[in-house]
């Protein structure tokens, strides 16, 4: 359940000044607040709902939405899993009344043989039909203005549309644990672009040379570094305009390995017959396999009985490709040395060695990029700030990422979800 917060007495004055500056008769009053509710709903849509649905407006601010898919999403009216435990609106996003209105609109468009809708046109419906997202209500607006307790993510949305900082107006006796999930998303986006040049170049070279790529072996005891590498490779593929669909083939525990028989069964269930090539019409598939529990014979069987038959099913004329990443936490298995002495495995596998550890110069390079992404000014010069973060990190990737999250006001709770597994669970 989301935390409840309120404005301080001094914060209420700041809020009232910002509201008054909107002008009379403009929909920002205590009672007549239609414009405030519209803007707050759009804020939640842009900063919570679209990221959760993986609809990016970074490179194209006005993407085309497929009406059938949009109808299915709104008809379901929920997103699982939520972005974080504080964002209730990632579970249910439209109010019942607004859900009914937008479904009626979409059905009318479909009946007129429309198949697509631009995002900007979708935005216009919010003002025209007074569409509201979950908990964006007259009562919450009045409670916000009156200094009463409301859900913290709605508090943030109202502050944002008034152009004020929630830090300036919140009552200190209500601990504000919410950190904007958008900030976390932005931070991860920047980190995804960084480092791992050698590894992403090896993957790209492999993909360019053959429609049947090698399997990629990733050995690293640090789950954060393994995840970072895979995120970086995914980002690189996306820069080519390709969509990536990661699939983890772990057992019920992410730390154990499925048998070859179970792997084949799960893959064939997920991609029966020609459905594999249907997906490869528009996407790259990443298969993530944990190989920690395999011996040398299991390792060979993974290539011969699982990977090679999959490649044989792939139509080379499809624009997408399928990649397999074999993940190991470096437990000293016999295959770790023996695979390099086996010609069959050497021909079928490319090892992605760990990236170099962070150094001060690396952070000096990345900190300004994060600040620009956040539209903020750094509090210290990058050299001083990088040294401080490295000292907090003590050479550990997890602690360095944690220090970056803290520096840029992102929630530590997202660390495990974002960085300990790939794809995120």
Automatic annotation (TrEMBL):
InterPro entries: iSTAND. Pfam families: iSTAND (PF19995). Residues 193-327 form the Inactive STAND domain. This is Inactive STAND domain-containing protein. It comes from Planktothrix paucivesiculata PCC 9631.
């Amino acid at each position: 359940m989301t935390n409840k917060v309120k404005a301080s007495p001094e914060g209420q004055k700041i809020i009232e000044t910002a509201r008054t500056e909107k002008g009379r008769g403009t929909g920002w009053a205590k009672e007549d607040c239609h414009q405030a509710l519209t803007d707050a709903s759009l804020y939640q849509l842009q900063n919570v709902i679209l990221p959760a649905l993986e609809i990016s407006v970074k490179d194209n601010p006005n993407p085309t939405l497929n009406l059938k898919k949009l109808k299915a999403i709104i008809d379901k009216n929920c997103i699982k899993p939520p972005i974080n435990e504080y964002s209730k609106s990632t579970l249910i996003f439209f109010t019942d009344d607004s859900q009914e209105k937008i479904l009626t609109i979409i059905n009318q468009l479909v009946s007129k043989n429309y198949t697509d809708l631009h995002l900007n046109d979708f935005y216009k419906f919010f003002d025209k039909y007074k569409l509201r997202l979950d908990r964006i209500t007259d009562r919450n607006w009045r409670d916000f203005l009156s200094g009463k307790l409301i859900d913290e993510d709605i508090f943030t949305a109202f502050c944002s549309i008034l152009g004020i900082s929630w830090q300036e107006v919140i009552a200190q006796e209500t601990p504000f644990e919410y950190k904007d999930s958008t900030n976390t998303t932005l931070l991860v986006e920047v980190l995804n672009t960084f480092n791992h040049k050698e590894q992403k170049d090896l993957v790209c070279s492999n993909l360019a040379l053959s429609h049947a790529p090698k399997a990629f072996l990733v050995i690293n005891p640090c789950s954060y570094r393994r995840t970072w590498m895979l995120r970086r490779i995914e980002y690189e593929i996306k820069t080519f305009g390709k969509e990536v669909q990661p699939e983890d083939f772990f057992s019920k525990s992410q730390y154990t390995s499925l048998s070859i028989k179970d792997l084949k069964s799960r893959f064939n269930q997920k991609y029966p017959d020609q459905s594999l090539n249907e997906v490869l019409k528009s996407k790259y598939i990443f298969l993530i396999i944990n190989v920690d529990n395999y011996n040398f014979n299991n390792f060979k069987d993974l290539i011969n009985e699982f990977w090679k038959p999959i490649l044989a099913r792939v139509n080379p004329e499809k624009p997408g490709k399928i990649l397999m990443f074999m993940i190991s936490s470096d437990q000293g298995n016999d295959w770790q040395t023996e695979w390099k002495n086996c010609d069959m495995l050497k021909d079928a596998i490319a090892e992605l060695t760990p990236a170099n550890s962070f150094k001060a110069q690396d952070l000096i390079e990345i900190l300004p990029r994060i600040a620009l992404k956040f539209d903020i000014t750094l509090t210290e010069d990058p050299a001083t700030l990088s040294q401080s973060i490295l000292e907090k990190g003590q050479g550990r990737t997890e602690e360095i990422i944690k220090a970056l999250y803290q520096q840029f006001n992102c929630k530590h709770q997202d660390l495990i979800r974002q960085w300990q597994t790939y794809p995120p669970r």
